[in-house]
Amino acid sequence: VQYVPADAGLLQAISPALRSLHIVFRRSSTRKGETHSLSECEAFVRDLLPKVAAKAPLLRYLRISTSAAARESWLETIGYLTHLESVDMLQRMYVAPDTAPLLLPLASLPHLRHLKLCLPTNVPFGLGQKAFPSLKTLTLDTLYAPLSAVSTLLSSISSRNLHTLLIQNCGLVNGTINSVHDVCDIIRVQFAPTLRKLELSAEKLNSAGTSVQPQSLVAYIEPLLDLHDLEDIRIVIPPDVALTPSSGRCLEKLAE
Predict the structure, then answer these.
(1) How far is 37 from 152, CA to CA, in rounded Å?
(2) For 137-141, which contacts have Cβ atoms below 8 Å and span 24 or more sequence positions?
(3) How confident is the model at residue 192 (pLDDT cuts 50, 70, 90)?
(4) pTM for the complete prediction?
(5) Could you tell me where the beta strands, DSSP code E, fall in 74-159?
(6) CA-to-CA distance for 104 and 76, rounded, in angstroms?
């Protein structure tokens, strides 16, 4: 546990041989009448990860839980940990995550193979031609992100070794359900040769005043039918999102 702001007790406990680290940020308790400014907290958090990088050159796995003590955007200095292979920043979110500033430094990590992240509402373009060059597994919590943000991020990935993709908690509305097809098409174009496990789940349904012509599930996920090397697939879309029962022919296509 690292209190914010506080002394560098965490740094004193780090060994140069450390390979795995979970940092849980907590707000420091204050004396009566004493407060810590937001700028103090931000400066402390931004300073911490470069110091961790200097103390633990062999660090390969990093998990971060921010709670209410730190904002995700303060962790941009994660780019100093150039040897990281696995980053886990999944956590229960009650407001939209501020992870957009992290995407460029994460995309620049040359050895990053496994990433778990709460996706922000807006994903910036221009992450670079060599973004996420070594990524093998990606888990995205998209509770607060539109599917267009998912499409933007997936399109930026340069790795040709991604074998596991989990997209969780998508928020769907009837007026934008065709975005599912767009995401599936990007998955086909980007990862068809290597992808072996895929999850696309919508746990939340936003109500929209628009209506669309009902279609079968296959119509939305049709690009995935070209991924013949998939070994494990899970698609969860609420039945009230303009879906009709699949015909026998549709089921045959899925079976292929």
Answers:
(1) 35
(2) 137/113, 137/162, 137/163, 137/164, 137/165, 138/114, 138/162, 138/164, 138/165, 138/166, 139/90, 139/115, 139/166, 139/168, 140/166, 140/167, 140/168, 141/90, 141/93, 141/117, 141/168, 141/169
(3) very high
(4) 0.88
(5) 86-88, 114-118, 137-141
(6) 8
Q: What b/e sequence results for 131-159 when a residue is b if at least 16 CB atoms lie within 10 Å of its CB, and e otherwise?
A: bbbbbbbbbbbbbbbbbebbbbbbebbeb
pLDDT in tens, 208-219: 555 555 667 777
Phi first, then psi: give them for residue 246, nearest 5 degrees: -75, 140
Specify the pLDDT at position 12. 83
Q: Are 237 and 214 in contact (CB under 8 A)?
A: no
Length reported for the chain: 256
pLDDT digits (tens, 9 = 90+) for 12-29: 888 999 999 998 887 766
